[in-house]
Specification:
alpha/beta, 6 helices, disordered N terminus, two-stranded antiparallel ribbon, about 190 residues, four-stranded parallel β-sheet, Ribosomal Protein L13p, Chain: A, single chain
Length: about 190
């Protein structure tokens, strides 16, 4: 016993009539395919990808006084990358310029002031230095925030470009008043 199935010619165009019918609906198979796949493909939304010339960069001021270091660094890193904006594009720098003031008053919770360490190496023998967070805060308080934010940015050309938009000042004054920065509270 043999069973033969007659299939439509593959050379036919979508507009031509096809004799092969679908069992339940009575429509041609090509009509079903055309309605379900091709039309839906045209209706899809296009994903917006920002381009370098289209980005408007804002300047924002962040007061670090009394805010935990990690929470502050996350907000700053997201603003630098542009993840807090609807135009975020992973491979384009869409972020804002971030000005951090009162870096010396950033909060380290628990016993991190005495137990958290910062290392540096000059490249020479015996050039390995280990400093605790309270010593770093006394010498160069900007380093606390700078290293925390750098750890949250992508490493590479794009990350360095985003990192260069970060300006940190130990006190409450900054020289960027001409850019009319917007104050942001976290």
């Amino acid at each position: 016993m043999t069973c033969e199935t007659v299939l439509p010619d593959h050379g036919q165009q979508f507009g031509e009539a096809v004799a092969w019918q679908h069992g339940r609906s009575g429509k041609s198979v090509l009509q079903i395919f055309k309605n379900s796949f091709i039309e839906k493909r045209r209706e899809k939304m296009k994903t917006y990808l920002a381009k370098n010339g289209e980005i408007e960069r804002k300047h924002i001021v962040v007061d670090a006084a009394g805010i935990p270091l990690g929470r502050l660094a996350v907000k700053i890193a997201n603003s630098l990358r542009g993840k807090d904006r609807p135009t975020y594009t992973p491979h384009v720098d869409t972020g804002c310029f971030v000005i951090v003031i009162n870096a010396e008053k950033v909060l380290l919770t628990g016993s991190k002031d005495t137990k958290k360490t910062y290392e540096s190496f000059s490249g020479y023998r015996s050039g390995h230095k280990i400093l605790t967070a309270d010593v770093v805060r006394a010498k160069k308080p900007e380093r606390l925030i700078r290293e925390a934010v750098w750890g949250m940015l992508p490493k590479g050309r794009l990350g360095r470009q985003q990192y260069s938009k970060l300006k940190i000042y130990a006190g409450a004054e900054h020289p960027h008043a001409a850019q009319t920065p917007e104050t942001v509270k976290f």
